[in-house]
Amino acid sequence: MTDELLRVESVDKSYGDERVLTDVSFEMDRGDVTVLIGPSGSGKSTMLRCVNRLTEIDDGAIYLDGDCVTDADTNVNDLRRQVGMVFQDFNLFSHLTALENVSLGPRRVLGKEKAEATQLAREQLEQVGLGKQLDSYPAELSGGQQQRVGIARALAMDPKLMLFDEPTSALDPELIGDVLEVMRDLVDQGMTMLVVTHEMGFAREAADELVFLDGGKVAERGPPEQLFENPQHDRTAQFLRRLTELHG
Ligand SMILES: Nc1ncnc2c1ncn2[C@@H]1O[C@H](COP(=O)(O)OP(=O)(O)O)[C@@H](O)[C@H]1O
Ligand SMILES: [Mg+2]
User: What pLDDT, on a 0 to 100 scale, did the predictor assign at position 22?
Assistant: First the structure.
């Protein structure tokens, strides 16, 4: 077993005539936190979606734990079981309680008994600070609480890798902190995380590597200190200066 968990190798992706990703490569070891940054439309969401095959790549390859996930004969359901995803807009089932939202995957996908899945879901929700909201419906929860349900739901599948696509972008400023705190706990627990975010405070302290996507290409990558203190390209410096002004 090597330490490498994710390898993205020369990935190209177009939508029709529009080239969205060009020759994108990066790697993550187990326990790494990689933060993908870049302007709107630079291909960040597309890159995440390629990892769990919500979007198909045109060229290159992606490996998870040594297996090529972009092969035509890859079992996509197996893959998605191993990769948790947290979306900007939470994507919860509105007719299910927090507990039901979190226990659904373990029951339906992992085939766990109701009692076991419920217990697992309760523990996950307690971990994200929602032990008192088990029976609440999404509409009864704040955005920050809904997003924490979303994180608990992904964690209940015991994923190898967690993908976060701007998990705090839809939240009121005062609710962002609670979600970032849950993400920091996950980092401390050694979870491997690929995160798209504009929260530069989180990126600076939590990321092992920043990958700056610009126009669908990796413009620069490296440890946060390097990109913040000593960027190799003017574009990186400009982008980070602007983001830091906006999101500290
Ligand atoms: N399903 C799709 N069909 C067509 N074009 C898309 C689709 N998804 C994204 N795009 C285009 O791909 C480009 C990159 O989008 P995206 O990956 O969402 O960027 P980001 O997340 O960095 O803002 C954009 O120009 C967007 O309009
Ligand atoms: Mg996006």
Answer: 98
